[in-house]
Amino acid sequence: TNWGLGTDNRRFMSGERAGINRANVGGLELAWSLAFPKVTDMRSQPAIIGDTLYLGDKTGKLYAIDRHSGCIRAHTEVLSGIRSAITVVTLNNGKKLLVFADSMASIYAVDPVSLKKVWQEAARIYETSVITGSISYHDDRLFVPVSSYEVAVSGSPTHVCCKSHGGVIALDATNGNKLWEWHGTADATLQGRNRD
Fold first, then answer.
1. Is 142 inside a domain boundary?
2. Which terminal Cβ of the chain has fewer Cβ within 10 Å, N or C?
3. In a domain, 18, yes or no
4. Strand, coil or helix: what is 34?
């Protein structure tokens, strides 16, 4: 499962399941709102378990919010801004985890009740690796899409561009151990140098 609402990643939810349809959409009203001080943008799509909304922000805070009232029930903090969607996984043993990536390409598994970290694992292919896509889960395995922000640093005259590329890393969802890594392209080879 992932933020795409299934393995086909359609992000589709029926009107019956959502409770929104043509007849009632015009009557929707704001139930609550929440401010995030010192946060200029949000990059993490939320997840819901029961009546709790889980939301990550750019400062690295993961919130458990009452989805009916908007009251913050609890929060925890990770090393850097939460960048990916929050993925809810149910392990083969029945245990639930919240899984997400921060802006430094670290993957976290957090207990949804206590918000305590179960494990943390770096998922970098290069020093400029970043996780922007949602993490997918199947059969106690996590599939992490890895991309790169090297384009942002390639304007530096001292940076030899471009060495990085994206790929997919598979992790054991129970402990974060890396199972395998796939690269989207072959390693780059030097084609020329910047003018000195």
1. yes
2. C
3. no
4. coil
